[in-house]
Write a structure and sequence with these properties.
Elements: E1 3-6, H1 14-24, E2 28-32, H2 33-38, H3 43-52, E3 56-63, H4 71-91, E4 95-99, H5 110-126, E5 130-134, H6 145-155, E6 160-165, H7 166-171, E7 187-192, H8 202-209, H9 220-229, E8 236-238, H10 243-246, H11 250-271, E9 288-297, H12 300-312, E10 316-321, E11 326-331, E12 334-339, H13 344-353, E13 356-364, H14 367-376, E14 395-397, E15 403-407, H15 416-420, E16 421-423, E17 433-444, H16 448-458, E18 462-463, E19 467-471, E20 474-482, E21 489-495, H17 501-508, E22 513-521, H18 524-534, H19 543-552, H20 557-566, E23 569-573, E24 576-582, E25 591-599, H21 609-620
Parallel strand pairs: 1-2, 1-8, 2-3, 3-4, 4-5, 5-6, 6-7, 7-8, 9-12, 13-15, 17-21, 22-25
Antiparallel strand pairs: 9-13, 10-11, 10-16, 11-12, 14-15, 17-22, 18-20, 19-20, 20-21, 23-24, 24-25
Helix pairs in contact: 1-11, 3-4, 5-6, 9-11, 11-16, 19-20
The structure holds 3,4-dihydroxybenzoic acid and magnesium ion.
Magnesium ion binds near residues 134, 165, 191 and 239.
Function: Catalyzes the conversion of 3-dehydroshikimate to protocatechuate (3,4-dihydroxybenzoate), a common intermediate of quinate and shikimate degradation pathways.
EC number: 4.2.1.118
Enzyme class: lyase
């Protein structure tokens, strides 16, 4: 499968766009005319510049307002086309996209449009060029791929074909199966884009809110399945108009695009095994078994504080690494590794940011399969020199330079705790924490799409609807991702203002990282009681909160008293109930949480966030600062 992306999807100058696109692994580009015009250099040079980077020009676009014009306007449209044909020949591309007309003088009429395209095809064909017709969702007379196809069919010229764009078809809610009856060799080009479902004007939605397949809410997979079923064998090309991407890092956006396109093609071939998608084989999304470990880079005084906090939560130190300054803290199935190395990845992480989560270990069905999939999607493998007796655990780079490890049982990687660690004393305390409920990664708002794509293309995880977390000083957007059985839950929290708790963490911590870890208990009141005995200092929750709870929910008085007495927050929905107990914030605004889920409650207590955040901020406010 030939991969391609429109230059309009990436920020920067034309050479910057091309560098990023080539580096991300694409085979070709759709050259957006504006990007060519803005560049200072003749078309032949631009063509060479593109080919030098190993890219081909899959499409020249757009050519607007062509079909259905009367008299002189029609003649002028053909003159314009001839000029663009000259340009295409100099650039070195044979296909132009003609998008359906929005011209006020365009007359309409399928046969008139077909005649126009037959003549354009004749002129293009004489030069060895081809013309593709795309229905814009807001086209004046043609705004449905079925009508565009009818124009192409009636034009009946080998140099005239159809161009499909998932956005235009899906935005108009046209059934993708209508594509299955179009002959694949009459489809000249396929553009792909997703978008969040928002009610708004189609043109505005398209020009500002498109995103990578898998990042939005449209069924781009269903669309591409239908395309594949036709036998179409041309490029799959991303055409993403997005305000955020226009200002983003060219390489990050290009890499996200590549990941999204390869994952999409892989989904299509798995869903349509009878079709041939020309793509090297790699494993399906890894099945998640759970969180194997969370590793902090920490040293000195900060390490002592973190150890004290873990002890007060019922964790015990259970192992020491055979060669490195690593200790293993455990409770139930939860493993926290404290890495005090002064060199290597963790050493560098601590030097840059102080105590922070530098590594995550995920238990999967097949660890090397997970790595193979990650690399096929363009992830960067991570290697560190192995000491004697150490296991080679497959790993890639994750959020902001952190490292993500894959462990499994089949290849013995789950035994790393026995192989690489000397066991210390058995647990003498236990507060009933048995698993990691969720891990919260804080990032800038404009990193959220990228990281949610990262997780959902790599592992079998689904996105929940985006939730607003109300911080007293600004809004934080929260995207939850979960494996279907809850074996891994992540919340990606995107901050826009540095004044929010999440935004402040980004400043203090020099960028995105895990800000909190939530542990699961089966009995939060028993856990709270055990923690009191261990000297755990919970985040104090004001009485007003409990008065409001009494008004909002029908809670038994003794339950309300127990919640109040233990500083436990409460939420419920139709499926069940949720209990939350928080630690006080420590270094840079990191914190720990304890939760109990009852019934099928699948959320994260977002309604409690404003009160929890206000309570955390009261404790974090620098001494002597005014309250406002
Ligand atoms: O928004 C536009 O004008 C526009 C132009 C060309 C395309 O291929 C498209 O999908 C949209
Ligand atoms: Mg398009």
């Amino acid at each position: 499968m030939k991969t391609s992306i429109a230059t309009v999807s990436i920020s920067g100058s034309l050479p910057e766009k091309l560098d990023a696109i080539a580096k991300a692994g694409f085979d070709g580009i759709e050259i957006f005319e504006q990007d060519f015009i803005a560049h200072d250099g003749p078309p032949r040079e631009v063509g060479a510049m593109i080919r030098e980077r190993g890219l081909e020009i899959t499409l020249f676009q757009p050519f607007r307002d062509f079909e259905g014009l009367p008299g002189d306007l029609r003649r002028k449209a053909f003159d314009r086309a001839e000029r663009k044909f000259d340009l295409m020949q100099e650039l070195g591309t044979d296909l132009v996209l003609v998008c359906s007309s929005v011209h006020p003088a365009s007359l309409g009429g399928i046969d008139r449009a077909a005649d126009d395209f037959a003549e354009l095809g004749e002129r293009a064909g004489a030069r060895g060029l081809r013309v593709g017709f795309e229905a814009l969702a807001w086209g004046r007379h043609i705004h449905d791929h079925r009508d565009a196809w009818e124009v192409v069919r009636r034009a009946d010229h080998r140099s005239v074909g159809l161009i499909l764009d998932s956005f235009h078809s899906l935005a108009r809610k046209i059934d993708s199966d209508t594509i299955r009856s179009i002959p694949g060799d009459r489809i000249f080009f396929v553009q792909l884009a997703d978008a969040p479902l928002i009610e708004m004007d189609l043109l505005y939605w398209s020009r500002h809110f498109r995103n990578m397949p898998g990042e939005g809410d449209l069924d781009v997979t269903g669309f591409m399945r239908a395309v594949a079923a036709t036998g179409y064998a041309g490029p799959a090309s991303l055409e993403i108009f997005n305000d955020q991407f226009r200002g983003g890092s060219p390489l990050t956006v290009a890499r996200d695009g590549y990941r999204s396109l390869i994952a999409l093609a892989d989904d299509v071939r798995r869903a349509e095994p009878e079709t041939s998608v020309d793509l090297p084989d790699f494993p399906a999304r890894a099945e998640v078994r759970g969180v194997s470990f969370v590793e902090f880079a920490t040293r000195g005084e900060e390490q002592a504080q973190l150890e004290a906090l873990l002890s007060s939560l019922g964790f015990t130190r259970r192992g020491r690494h055979i060669a490195k300054r690593l200790t293993l803290w455990q409770q139930g199935d939860i493993r926290i590794v404290l890495n005090a190395e002064t060199t290597g990845h963790a050493g560098a992480a601590f030097n840059a940011r102080g105590t922070s989560v530098c590594d995550l270990g995920i238990s999967v069905g097949d660890a090397s399969g997970a790595l193979a999939r990650a690399t096929a999607l363009g992830a960067e493998p991570f290697h560190q020199p192995l000491g004697p007796g150490e296991l080679d655990i497959p790993a890639i780079r994750g959020l902001r330079g952190s490292v993500l490890h894959f462990l499994d049982t089949a290849s013995g990687l789950d035994d790393v705790w026995q192989v690489e660690f000397e066991t210390e004393a058995a647990a003498t305390v236990d507060a009933g924490l048995n698993a990691i409920d969720h891990i919260a990664q804080t990032m800038n708002y404009d990193e959220m799409l990228s990281w949610s794509l990262f997780w959902t293309t790599l592992l079998a995880m689904d996105k929940a609807p985006m939730v607003d977390v109300i911080d007293p000083d600004g809004l934080v957007r929260s995207q939850a991702l979960a494996a279907s059985d809850g074996a891994l839950r992540l919340t990606l929290n995107g901050a826009e203002s540095h004044r929010t708790l999440a935004g402040g963490f980004l400043v203090e911590n020099l960028g995105a990282a895990v800000q909190h870890i939530a542990f699961a208990t089966d009995d939060i009141f028993a856990t709270a009681k055990a923690l009191r005995g261990l000297g755990f200092d919970p985040l104090p929750i004001p009485a007003n909160y409990y008065d409001d709870l009494a008004a909002r929910f029908d809670l038994a008085p003794d339950l309300l008293d127990s919640l109040r007495g233990a500083n436990i927050l409460y939420d419920e929905d139709a499926a069940g109930a949720f209990f939350q107990l928080y630690s006080r914030p420590f270094h840079a605004g990191l914190f720990l949480e304890i939760v109990e889920r009852r019934g099928g409650y699948a959320g994260y207590g977002a309604p409690n966030a404003p009160f929890r955040i206000a309570a955390q901020k009261r404790l974090m406010r620098p001494k002597g600062m005014p309250a406002a």
